[in-house]
Design goal:
By secondary structure, the chain is an alpha+beta fold. The chain contains three helices and five strands, in the order αααβββββ. Strand 3 and strand 4 form a beta hairpin. Helix 2 runs antiparallel to helix 3. The relative contact order is 0.08.
């Protein structure tokens, strides 16, 4: 077998596995893990090393989920602080096409969205000018 071809195949498999793993959440991982335990052969139980490795992976997925939740909370708090600071002030988009006085701010998945006095909305993103 050609060594470079084997390395390329291994690299492709590792990349595919990483893509699949990044799409799994804790619930999906736990479901797969429990299914594996239910369907294993009782006369040939899972290797204890593999079992401990999977439990460690589950723990890592749970910790990553908790970290993401805390980061989301921190971002929401940051958006609220930003909102409080600009209500009543004039904002201008980076290209200068939209400008107006901020009447309210709504927090969305994309960030803070300012509602201007004339009813238009502007995402508070990089490049806006607050005066």
């Amino acid at each position: 077998m050609d060594v470079p071809a084997t390395q390329a195949t291994t690299a492709a498999a590792a990349k595919a596995a990483g893509t699949v793993a990044s799409k799994l959440n804790a619930d999906a991982f736990l479901t797969l893990f429990m299914t594996q335990l239910k369907n294993q052969d009782p006369t040939k139980p899972m290797d204890s090393t593999e079992y401990v490795g999977q439990l460690a992976t589950l723990s890592q997925v749970e910790q990553a989920t908790k970290t993401n939740q805390k980061l989301d909370s921190l971002l929401a708090s940051s958006f609220l602080d930003q909102a409080e600071a600009i209500i009543g002030r004039t904002v201008t988009s980076a290209d200068g096409a939209v400008s107006g006085t901020v009447r309210s701010v709504r927090i969305t998945g994309d960030g803070a969205l300012a509602r201007l006095a004339d009813g238009r909305e502007m995402l508070l993103a990089s490049g806006i000018v607050v005066s």
